[in-house]
Amino acid sequence: MMVRARRLGTAWLAAAAAPLLWAATTQIGQILPYIDCQHEHRWTAITALAAAALALFAGGICWANRSLTHTGRFLCGISSLLALVLAFAMLLQSTAGFVLTGCER
Known about the structure:
Mean pLDDT: 86
Oligomer: single chain
Low-confidence stretches: none
Shape: elongated
Radius of gyration: 16 Å
Helix content: over 70%
Number of helices: 3
Strand content: under 5%
Structural class: mainly alpha
Number of strands: 0
């Protein structure tokens, strides 16, 4: 019973990770272009790329825990698809960070 509860808790954490990473990346993406412009770095792109990798990892964890109850399978399936969609959005933000310098006005 304890193992099942731990797996369900892991699935819920993995389900919440991708939306939280996307929200953080969106907010950081509003701040970092100014720093990128001042110091000529690509921190916006690097953080978005790292967040996309973490979102895919969280989606993979949730997909691996699909063998729960019917509700757990549904949660993990939807969360894994959501992680893919949000990772794609973060990859697009990362691409913009590599293309743009942050000094455009």
